[in-house]
Design brief:
Layout: H1 19-31, H2 36-39, H3 51-65, H4 72-78, H5 83-88, H6 91-99, H7 107-135, H8 140-152, H9 166-181, H10 193-199, E1 207-212, H11 218-232, E2 236-241, H12 246-258, H13 273-286, E3 291-294, H14 301-314, E4 319-325, H15 337-355, E5 359-364, H16 387-391, E6 394-399, H17 401-408, H18 420-433, E7 436-444, E8 450-457, E9 462-464
Parallel strand pairs: 1-5, 1-6, 2-3, 2-4, 4-5
Antiparallel strand pairs: 6-7, 7-8, 8-9
């Protein structure tokens, strides 16, 4: 007899769990802290079904890591007032856990059982979400990608190796080094030499976060990298534009190539014939580049993934870069804004791994940055979720000192007056920083941190290497 519940009854199926196994693992740890090492590489608090058990495991792990004792007596004070524990019987429940301890020889088998139950719960949630998405009228590809993300997020298989010999690791590293030495480099150049010197390019499945305050040039930087990959290198690019229309994005890209301010295109009748001709020529020069734009109505991770996979198939698997402008506009089903953005960041990370290409995601920063004396961004300035910082392989911030100087003006003295000296100093600072962007690398899993300075013209979105003034139009300074 088939005992599998139909999909329309999936939400009614009890969540898979094994409370007894959870109790016995916790009992083993509470009676013998040394046994924690037997299962520490397999279990995490989120794998426990009962939230009280998850908290107990987390507290035990933290205490043992510090060399402190984790026992019913020591946890009694830590969990005093915990409502969940009170519902289970209070401190007496900790003593009962200790009495339910299991033998060390089966510890890993019980840990694998918890992993299996957690995986089954995750599958259940994915099926329920797929049912909801279908009922809302979403396409089959979007639902499929949602299920794929659910599968990708399952707890790792319990039978996998947890240690590898140095010889095994060095064999793989040496093979990669030989391929790179022979010119088979899989890293993608951004086209900005000073930045590439720091981050050494973007690797397959890298998740690169580009942040900056409003109007700091994030989209211009992303377009510059995309244009370098698609136009200069001839490699496939998929650009998710959640803020601008596809026409606005294409206009900005052509403006960068033509050196004609993109704002001029809003009233093209006032443009000179020469500028209009240059813009049209630039548009024709780049129109056949292998770059596809995903429009703003495609707004959540499964839908973006489905669209990107479609582009990847159209390019015969030769997609080399995905850009999302910007991450905080991606839609998610979380309860609050923090949970939503946490899910979005995790989803982007999974998508990069499943597509096998670097993903650049733009992100907004907190407005509080404008209240500081030093306005160079920090990791803590990323809005709405620290998960972005945790998941990203590289975090690059756009900073233009001239932007802030122009808005602040010369500093006034204590009497509120602006002296000639203050005005001259302000003008000198403004002149030295005009058309300069700092690319501040605050996180880099694959190399060093640092700041790359490049030339940047805001009106056209152009970038160039500082010192090469022949690349700068008269009047840009």
């Amino acid at each position: 007899m088939n005992n599998v519940a139909p999909l329309h009854r999936a939400a009614e199926v009890p969540q898979p769990h094994n409370i007894e196994a959870e109790q016995q693992i916790l009992g083993m740890i509470l009676t013998d802290n040394g046994s924690f090492d037997l299962i520490a590489d397999l279990l995490k608090p989120e794998l426990f079904f009962d939230p009280v058990h998850a908290r107990i495991f987390e507290i035990c792990a933290a205490r043992i890591a510090k060399g402190h004792v984790a026992s019913p007596v020591t946890l009694k004070n830590v969990l005093e007032g915990d409502e969940g524990l009170q519902q289970l019987g209070g401190p007496a429940y900790l003593a009962r856990l200790a009495g339910a301890s299991l033998a060390k020889v089966v510890a890993r088998d019980y840990a694998r059982e918890l992993i299996e139950q957690a995986a089954r719960r995750a599958l259940h949630q994915s099926l329920v979400q797929a049912q909801v998405t279908l009922s809302e009228g979403s396409g089959s590809q979007e639902v499929k990608m949602g299920l794929l993300h659910g599968l990708h997020a399952l707890p790792e298989a319990s039978g996998e190796e947890t240690t590898f010999s140095l010889a095994h690791a060095l064999t793989g590293a040496a093979d990669a080094a030989v391929r790179s030495y022979q010119g088979e480099n899989s890293f993608l150049s951004t086209g900005l030499g000073p930045l590439d010197q720091i981050i050494k390019g973007l690797g397959p499945s890298d998740y690169c976060l580009i942040g900056g305050a409003t109007s700091m040039g994030k989209t211009s930087l992303a377009l510059q990298i995309a244009a370098n990959v698609a136009v200069t290198q001839g490699k496939g690019v998929c650009f998710v534009s959640l803020e601008m229309t596809k026409e606005e994005l294409a206009t900005r890209m052509a403006s960068s190539v033509s050196r004609v301010p993109y704002a001029s295109l809003r009233q093209a009748s006032d443009m000179s014939e020469g500028d209009f001709r240059k813009w049209i020529e630039a548009a024709n020069a780049i129109k056949d580049a292998p770059m596809h734009i995903i429009p703003k109505q495609v707004r959540d991770i499964p839908a973006i993934h489905a669209a990107a996979r479609k582009v990847q198939r159209m390019m015969d698997g030769k997609l080399s870069l995905l850009v999302i402008d910007y991450a905080q506009l991606v839609r998610s089903g979380g309860k609050g804004r923090y949970e939503q953005m946490t899910d979005v960041s995790i989803g982007i990370k999974h998508m990069a791994g499943m597509l096998g290409v670097p993903v650049i995601a733009l992100c907004q920063l907190s407005r509080d940055i404008g209240q500081r004396d030093d306005k160079r961004p920090q990791l803590s300035d990323i809005k709405e979720s620290g998960q972005f910082e945790n998941d990203a392989d590289q975090v690059i911030f756009c900073h233009r000192e001239s932007y802030w100087l122009q808005r602040q003006g010369p500093k006034a003295d204590k009497a509120g007056q602006v002296t000639d000296k203050a005005r001259l100093e302000w003008e000198a600072d403004l002149q030295s920083t005009r058309n300069v962007m700092e690319l501040v690398v605050r996180k880099n899993r694959h190399g060093r941190l640092g700041t790359a300075q490049v030339g940047f013209h805001d009106a056209t979105g152009r970038f160039w290497k500082l010192g090469e003034r022949d690349d700068v139009q008269e009047g840009d300074f």
